[in-house]
Amino acid sequence: MTEIFKIAIIFFVLVVFFIGPLNIFDKTNKELRINILNYNFIINFNILLFLSLISLPIKNYQLIYITILLLTFFYTLLVSKISYFHLIKKNIINFSIFYFSFFIIAINISSNLNFGWDAKYFYYIKSLFFFEGLGLNELREFEHNKWHPHFGSYLWAFFWSLPFMEIEYFGRLSYVFIFCFSIYFITKIPNNNYHSVLLYLVILILLFKYDRFSGLQEILIFSYLSIASKILYDLENKKKILDLIMLILITNLIMWIKAEGIVYSLIILTIFLFNNKVIVKEKVFIFLIFMIFVSLKYNVYLLYDLELNAQPYNFESFFSLSIENLYYRFEKILIYLGYYSLINPIFLIGVILTILLNFLNNDKILTKNFNIYFILNTLFIFSAYLLRDLEIVYSLKTTLERIVFTSSGFYVYLIIIFINKKFKKWKIS
To answer: What is the domain partition of the chain in residue ranges?
Structure first.
């Protein structure tokens, strides 16, 4: 019972990172602004990323940071002159669904504490370093630190080390919260709570699988890609400066979660650069900021003597492949990609809809964004395995399912747009 109570409590601790520093209240209709919730989430996690880079022990600032966010929230609530009763009344349905979906998944995780293979040998051990108050300087002594960046493990440690909460899987519940919020964010339809809730629950059920919350990092990149796809689409319809900033901050987070994060960041940036509503000066500015973030990662790795390229990719071995071997690899990639696409309905439907957009849809923005993503993501998948200096079938069996899942994050919003348009059509008829 104590553990169940703590699960209920940690949800509200996680909520704190969404309610500040920006004012989340809409003074016009006196309800929560979901875009601002998303901005706060991205800002706060970038701040945590920065704090991890300077190796400040989590315990030294954790409670102070949470307190500042809480005080900011209550101040904006006071200034906005919104009553607690009105706030609860306006948001009770969405909040309740969000809370109970998180709670059910959290209970499922608490009853099955198995780690994924990578989590067991890489991410969990990294999180232990941060949990013990150590930083990147000490982490470089860990033999397997070289395989992937550290930020997912840092989040794990941050929420694991909360006072009176110090249970390992509580750190992983932050992944659950991020995942649930990303789906909530992209399914939210203004003035249509019931349709939004239905979409949210259906997508959640389709995507939930325990292994994805077993300490593996794919769920984080999946969630950020989902949010990025919505922001990219919204930018073409109504440009907002804050959306530009949040988009580049998302790419920064993705780069520090997994090695392939840099590829997904570049894909997001490429789609953005093809945006017709953004002027050249803004594109140049965002590109320069992106390069600063890339440079920051490069210099941090040099500072802490971390290995920049530890992945098993080898251009020399690729160019030495025979035509027969190259064809064999290509064939195996195609077969396994087809198989894992069939068992991932979101990825499969997303790819099919992307292709159909070119023949059936007059939404040029939608078509352009998802065409670019489909082409670049497909090139990435094939390149990753053609260049991989490991036995091809073993590599595909052990990693491709996760890459397909990660990649499907961008397609979720396309499916939602398609359903919403059909819903309106059905409603009219």
So the answer is: 2-310, 312-429
